[in-house]
Design brief:
By secondary structure, this protein is mainly beta. It has 1 helix and 9 strands. The N terminus is likely disordered.
Length: about 160
Amino acid sequence: MRPHEAAASETDRPREAAALTGTAKLHRSAGDDITFSFDAHLAAKDKADPMKATGTFAFSHYQNGNGARAEVAVDCLLTGGKVAVVSGIVTESDLPGVEGKRVGVTVHDLDRHDRLGYSWAATGTPAEMDGLPKCVSSAPFEKVAKGTGDFTVVPWQPEF
């Protein structure tokens, strides 16, 4: 295959219906090490159903050597413009009481000034939440640390 043929075939593929990718650390003046990473996708064929999203996301929060991390299997992804809400079930964590719970995260992709929110913002930890519906989170109130925000949101464009 010639190089121009490969490029043409890549552009012929339908774009994803929605996506959220990237990694960032949150800005905390107390020195907390908080990281969120996303690899969430909604295939073009599933454009009408954001609950068919796939992928994973992870988060961790450490301070003075103490903390926890979690891995999450995506179960919903909604995007609008540069804002994404993703939810999923915690599949692995070293924080007691979190595995099997649904958590949600909101990302606002603002280039070098990304923002982030999470469903446990008002409760303190994901372990204290029960019965969270899919694709639910808080407003993106947290700022990411300078130089770390590389989130990319592919906007969902449903046909109404």
